[in-house]
Specification:
The chain has a single domain, classed as Aminopeptidase (3-Layer(aba) Sandwich), CATH 3.40.630. Helices cover 24% and strands 27% of the residues. The chain is built from 5 helices and 9 strands, in the order E-H-H-E-E-E-H-E-H-E-E-E-E-H.
Length: 203
């Protein structure tokens, strides 16, 4: 496949939000929240322009990934900057073509070039382990609630990148939203029927 991976243009913001909505609709939640989260990430101080990335196939957007600044706060309130990965979206008719892998590998290498020490995400460990992600518990990092579970994973971008980083992980504050905000945001998209999520997340 001839796929181009590059930084997202501002003119493509709406299309990537729409793609995210299509991909995540009724996937893990009834309806979707990830497209609003993506939109809010771009307005936040945690946004990193170079890590907002699209995959172009046959002159169309086939996939998208965003990586934002986040932090781990240690037991003595020390703050360690890390990266939060996601959402990651690939057009449903192009699943299994390696586009997601291209987006993730590109983001890892670009983040490395930019000098970041680590990435953290919530995702399928069977998939993300192929890129070197492992249960964050291995680095003594928990969620903000003090939990660990297999989908909560971390990757060192440099040798011993998390060696002195322990504590609770906090994704960008802009990941928070209200139901009223989501309802208002939804008005700009074609109506879709909410249903039972395809996958239920059990922690």
């Amino acid at each position: 496949m001839n796929v181009q991976i590059r930084k997202t243009n501002i003119s493509e913001f709406h299309e990537t939000v729409y793609l995210t909505r299509e991909v995540f609709w009724n996937l893990y939640d009834s309806g979707c929240k990830d497209h609003l989260i993506l939109h809010n990430f771009r307005k936040s101080e945690d946004f990193i322009e170079e890590l907002d990335v699209v995959a172009i196939f046959q002159e169309k957007i086939a996939g998208h990934i965003i990586t934002t600044k986040s932090k781990v706060i240690g037991p003595n309130k020390e703050v360690h900057e890390v990266l939060h990965v996601g959402p990651v979206s690939v057009a449903t008719d192009l699943h299994g073509k390696g586009i997601g892998s291209m987006l993730i590998n590109y983001s890892i290498e670009k983040a490395r070039e930019m000098g970041f020490s680590a990435m953290i995400l919530f995702g399928n460990p069977g998939y993300y382990s192929r890129f070197g992600f492992k249960n964050a518990e291995a680095f003594k990092i928990t969620t903000s609630e003090g939990l660990n579970f297999d989908p909560f994973q971390a990757l060192e971008l440099k040798e011993n990148g998390l060696m002195n980083v322990t504590g609770k992980f906090y994704p960008p504050a802009s990941i928070q939203y209200t139901e009223e905000e989501l309802e208002e945001f939804e008005k700009q998209f074609p109506k879709k029927k909410k249903g039972e999520p395809k996958f239920k997340i059990i922690l």
